[in-house]
Amino acid sequence: MLDNRQRRWPERHLFLYDTTMSIQTILRVTAWLLFAAIVFATLSPLDLRPHSALPVNLERILPYIAAGFLFALAYRRHILAAAAFVIIAAIVLEVLQNVLPDRHGRETDAVVKVAGAIIGLTAGWLVTQLATRLKRN
Hints:
Layout: H1 4-18, H2 23-43, H3 56-74, H4 79-96, H5 107-136
């Protein structure tokens, strides 16, 4: 004989998994879309690159803070892999600029971007730790 939990399984799970996206999925999609935007802004020709009124170093660091934060939240169980990805991607994208005729990669730019990634990853990790502790209590 089936207990109540087994009887309700299809009703309870059918709608949860077929019609809604989890927060985790939304975070992952958002993180990857932001990463795609960073790749475009980093490697596109200068005339296609988005410009803002922000200081240059702020333009460099903010996207990586956001990316680090989102990847830390989206891949909280794989934080070291997320950290390695974001940090290595910042370095590789900066190096790839040297291949392009109208772009130039600099070590100082890479340091700023890596610092942003570390700040974002740390903030995201702290949020996940806090959420886990609050959930336990």
